[in-house]
Amino acid sequence: MSDLLAGAYLAKGTIGNVGTPGAPIATFSLVVVPSQHSVTGTVIITQAVQGPDSHIVVPVTGKIYAAGLGKFTQLVSLKGQYVHSVPPPAIGSFLAEFNAHFAIDNAWNGVGGFSYYQHNVENVPVAAAKNLQTELA
After folding, report:
1. Nearest 5°: CA angle at 55, between 102 and 45?
2. 75-133 pLDDT, tens per residue?
């Protein structure tokens, strides 16, 4: 039972074209437990364009597995749900799905994509947070 969280660590970073005006960016903060192939945490999707999708917080769970894809050593998948509010003149809210997938190296840099209500972002960079890069080195 004590080995359940063996090797657990924190991973932080972004998925998306950071610096591109109007591009949606998914910022992640995840607890990774490689021995259990599990990932749990939070993703915050931001977009400079104002509207109901300009700031979304999503609790996520997922899987992490070793990969043998050249420079990419790990495959990660995330899923979660968040409350999406319908803009006026309609009234209401519903649970919307969030999904992400990426192929990364040991420093959490690579390529991936994510989708959320009526948005699909593919083939974008995955970058570890600057302070995480030095911790993993």
Report:
1. 5
2. 999 999 999 888 778 888 899 999 999 999 999 999 999 999 989 999 999 999 987 55
Distance CA 8, CA 23 (A): 32
Greatest alpha-carbon pair distance for the chain in Å reads 54
Does residue 26 contact residue 114 with C-beta atoms inside 8 Å?
Answer: yes
Rounded Cα gap, residues 119 and 134, in angstroms: 33
pTM of the model: 0.87
Q: Is the dihedral of CA 37, 41, 47, 53 positive or negative?
A: positive
Task: Give residue limits of the domains in the chain.
Answer: 9-136
- Integer Cα distance of 129 and 13 in angstroms: 4
Domain 9-136 is found in CATH 2.60.40? no
Tokens (6 digits) for 13: 């970073």
Q: In angstroms, how far is CA 73 from the centroid of its own chain?
A: 17
